[in-house]
Design goal:
By secondary structure, the protein is mainly alpha-helical. It has one domain. It contains five helices and no strands.
Length: about 160
């Protein structure tokens, strides 16, 4: 089996398992939470996306990753982390701009991940960073999807919901 095939198998299996866990465990729990509380918990994993900066660190990746992947992936992740942190602070403080911040973070973060996923050809060069796209990216994709669902759910008045 090729390295790209193993990569895709692991990525898809992680996506499937995390999607099922989200459906069976996370979604029922979040349904009992306020809009802001649910968005807080779904946004939280994204505040750690600064980890993607390792794509620029020699020795962590097996070989230098191509600049057309490494630079946008690293700085896209850093941008998503900063925007997620901003959204978390605004959600926690009850700021009026919190929901807009979640929208901005979620759109930017999703585009960043989709752009990075176009580069399956770099999989053999990931080295120790292999776990990021095969485990962490599926977590991020599932939570991005769940945030979009939550934001688009009709009948909600998200600005009036408070964190408990």
């Amino acid at each position: 089996m090729s390295i790209q095939a193993i990569f895709l198998l692991q990525f898809m299996f992680s996506l499937l398992m995390l999607g099922l866990l989200a459906k069976w465990v996370l979604t029922p729990w979040l349904a009992k939470q306020s809009q802001r509380e649910a968005l807080f918990w779904l946004t939280l994993p994204h505040a750690f996306r600064y980890i993607g900066m390792v794509f620029l660190v020699p020795g962590v990746v097996a070989q230098p990753l191509p600049d057309n992947f490494a630079i946008p992936a690293a700085y896209g992740d850093l941008s998503a982390a900063v925007l997620a942190l901003l959204a978390l602070v605004l959600l926690r403080t009850g700021s009026k701009g919190a929901i807009m911040a979640v929208w901005i973070f979620n759109v930017v973060g999703t585009i960043d991940l989709l752009n990075a996923l176009r580069h399956v050809d770099v999989a053999p060069k990931f080295g120790a960073a292999w776990y990021i796209p095969t485990l962490l990216v599926p977590v991020l994709l599932v939570t991005h999807f769940m945030i979009f669902v939550r934001l688009l759910k009709p009948g909600k008045t998200p600005e009036n919901s408070t964190l408990v």
